[in-house]
Every structure is written in structure tokens, then in C-alpha cells.
């Protein structure tokens, strides 16, 4: 399907204006794949006509639908298992010791997509037996997409999604078949909560012990990345931990965080 340079710039400009995320040249192939269902649903004959439709003030929902379609919602349970294993050892041990008096841990999964990361954390805590008896473990997931946040709140996953990264033992323990999908048990759903949030806006939480913002910053330009790090720094406790994706770093993007040289791949706020 032909896509003119004008239409390509219109879609990329809309995505950046609404979310701060860049649709780089290497990702332009996603435009046709992502927007094809919207073309059919809205009965646009071409991508160029869809781009032109964005200028129609009578169709206020079209721009939001385009942005929703262009966002990358790639995620799966226990993504990068080694990172989860490390996190539940040293950093969580350190936080547990520091929070022993109040017996509460707060965790923000920023850019959580459909919630698999937050549910993975909930399972990891729940399966540590009596260690967390008497503790409040607050796991909060946010994403800019209303669609995926709705799905995350429901805790309902397709057969394909439930099998990605989730061992059969945990699937049977924490999820039950519901129609063609699998839904998280009420016990698991009570451990997590979700809300919509744009990472370019003021943070929705404060004094958080642990922030996971993994594989999100890859899509931001340099200026927007600085703004996101500023928001994360404003939200985190002075002795908290920040975890990024394996291909992400704070180096060259912010002076608000330093690498944690004890726990590889994690970062600490600068005092």
C-alpha cells in the first residue's frame, strides 16, 4: 500500500505530539501494519486518505485511534527472566531492610502495556511464602494507551499471551480459563492496580521505592527522554531503585540517576 512522505510525516508527527515517541525511519514499516485494521473499520480507501482525515475537526476520535494503533504494546510475562531474578534478590532485599519499620513497598511499572510485567511482579512476591506476611505490596501500572490499560485491569489474556514467558505451573496457579482467554485470579488482581498516564506529564505517584520503566525510552527522542527521566526522578524515593530495559541507560540522557554498581542494570537517584 502506497504511503506518501506527507502522510508518513503526518502520522509520525501526531504520534510524537501526543506521546513524545518517535516513529523513526526504521519503524516506518509498522505504519501500514498497524493502521490497516483502522482503514477497514473507518472505511478509508488508503493511508493517505486516513492522514487527510486527521484534519477533519468533526472526527475528534480519529487522531486518538491512530495513536492507539501506532503505539508498540510488545510485552510478555517475566520478560528478561534474569532481570526479574536479580530484582527479587539484592534490590528487593535492600528495600525490605530499609522499609522493615513501615512494612510497605511501593512499585511503579511505567509504560506497563497490557500488564504482564505488573502481574509477573505480583506472582513473584506472592510465591515467596511467608516472607511478606504483614506487608503491603503496592504495584501500580500505567500506560498512555486506554485500550491496554483496560485490558490490564481486567487481567484477561489470550492463549498466545498467557504462554509467552509464563511457566505452566504459574499459569495454572494464577490464571483460570474464561471463554477463549485466561483471567488472573481475584487474589492476583487485588495485588495490582492500573491507570492511564503519559510519561511526559507529572508523575502520578511520589516517594516510590522501585520504578520499572523497561523498553519504553527506546522510542523517545533526546529531549523527551530528559523529560521522562525528570518525572521518574520526581517520583522515586531517595534510596529507591530504577530498572530500565536491557538496551537502555541513563548515561548521556540525564544527571538525575547514577548506575548502581552493586546491582548491575539498576540505577539510583542522585541526591
TrEMBL record:
<dbReference type="InterPro" id="IPR050903">
    <property type="entry name" value="Bact_Chemotaxis_MeTrfase"/>
</dbReference>
<dbReference type="Pfam" id="PF01739">
    <property type="entry name" value="CheR"/>
</dbReference>
<keyword id="KW-0808">Transferase</keyword>
<dbReference type="InterPro" id="IPR022642">
    <property type="entry name" value="CheR_C"/>
</dbReference>
<dbReference type="InterPro" id="IPR029063">
    <property type="entry name" value="SAM-dependent_MTases_sf"/>
</dbReference>
<protein>
    <submittedName>
        <fullName>Chemotaxis protein methyltransferase Cher2</fullName>
        <ecNumber>2.1.1.80</ecNumber>
    </submittedName>
</protein>
<dbReference type="InterPro" id="IPR000780">
    <property type="entry name" value="CheR_MeTrfase"/>
</dbReference>
<feature type="domain" description="CheR-type methyltransferase">
    <location>
        <begin position="1"/>
        <end position="271"/>
    </location>
</feature>
<dbReference type="GO" id="GO:0008983">
    <property type="term" value="F:protein-glutamate O-methyltransferase activity"/>
</dbReference>
<dbReference type="GO" id="GO:0032259">
    <property type="term" value="P:methylation"/>
</dbReference>
<keyword id="KW-0489">Methyltransferase</keyword>
